[in-house]
Amino acid sequence: MTNRPGRFLALAQLANSTGDGAYYVTSALYFTHVAHIAPARVGLGLTLAWGFGSLVGVPFGRLADRRGPRGTSVLLALGTSAAVASFLLVRGFVPFVLTACCYAAAQSGLAAARQALLAHLVPPEERTGLLARLQSTLNGGLAVGAALGGVALSAGTAAAYRGVLLLDALCCLACALLLLRLPAVRAAPAADEAGTAGGGRRLAVLRDRPYTLLASLNAVLLLRLPLLSVALPLWITERTRAPAWLAAGLFVLNTLAVTLFQVRTARSVTGLGSALRALRRSGLMTALSCAVFALSAGRSAWLATLVMVVGAALQVVAEMLQSAGSWQLSFDLAPADRMGEYQGFFGTGATVARTVGPLAVTWLLLDWGTPGWLLLGVLMPAAAHAMGPVARRAADHRTPRRTAEPAPGN
Q1: How far is CA 403 from CA 114, 127, 269, 323, 347, in A?
Q2: In contact, 334 and 395? CB cutoff 8 Å
Q3: What sign has the CA pseudo-torsion 111, 405, 126, 281?
């Protein structure tokens, strides 16, 4: 691995995710108990904000390509810090929504710009391995941040909640300073009117149909994100006899597994063919985990607990395979001079999943029960297998190939 860029990218990720972990576990209570915003309005405001964030990821990625990914990353990290600090002053629904939109936009843009920065600083054959290390670092940071947020929750005071926001703002500032230590990257030359690598001056990724379809299929696979944080806690408390604390236990299991095993899982993914194989295995593992989760309904408390743990273990294996495969595809199938733009679009899948996913999976699983689990279990491998022909079509438009691995087969 390229030592210096990898080290500073990891440290920046650690700083950012530590602040995020503390923010995630306390922000809802801060907005409702301290800023005095009704819970329903908090949910609506955050949905609007992340919907806005999904729209600006591509333009910010394009900005990173044209102005340089390091400088753009630093500015967006500073913007995130300023947005978090501004929450301390928010009173009322409209200021909350505006500030949340700024926060979501800066976070979405930062993710795209940082991916573009990594693509320029790290050789192609090392990217998936480094992304696996960054994912492990992210989970470790979230765990540390959540523990710090737990201290604030135990105190339960306005000062404690404000302290978490201040901590998150400082962590984002530290992220910006660490990114500034990375080597500067030359901005991509502006394309002419006719376009070069798929371009012209407009957003080329929106006209790259194979890549946009690939990103859309990946967004379907990312419905796993609200599964762990929203659907499973509700399923446990409403449809099983398992103890409510099991939801937190499954979250810890997931976080620890990704921290410990994501790097090892990603080692087998070295090109398009191995990425597609990982995605197909991920789809099948997800289908199996959904079937196992469905078996927990109506069981005794101890049996339901055991079934849920087995399902969560299968789900986290699927998650790590899906992450490794999608990282490889997102880089290998993007033109080098538009890496930020393409990464920004690919990254909107996570934002879309977090925006519409909670409503979709709770309706599917809580209203439909076992049939809903089985339908979700069929949807995931179908999307994963569909990525094969789409990726092969996208690869036909990318010359020369970025990896030494042969063209992916069935």
Answers
A1: 22, 11, 11, 19, 22
A2: no
A3: positive
pTM of the shown model = 0.78
Locus of tokens 């295995």: 281
Tell me which residue of 186, 172, 54, 71 sits closest to 109, measured CA to CA. 54
Q: How far apart are CA 187 and CA 198, in angstroms?
A: 17
Distance CA 247, CA 230 (A): 10
| CA separation for the pair 149, 256 (Å, rounded) | 18
Distance CA 294, CA 374 (A): 8
pLDDT single digits (tens) 134-168: 888 988 888 888 888 888 888 889 999 999 999 99
Residue corresponding to tokens 């080692």 = 267
Per residue in 305-347, pLDDT (tens digit) is 999 999 999 999 999 999 999 999 998 898 888 888 888 899 8
CA–CA separation, 183 and 4 (whole Å): 9
| Structural domains present in the chain | 3-180 (1.20.1250.20), 204-396 (1.20.1250.20)
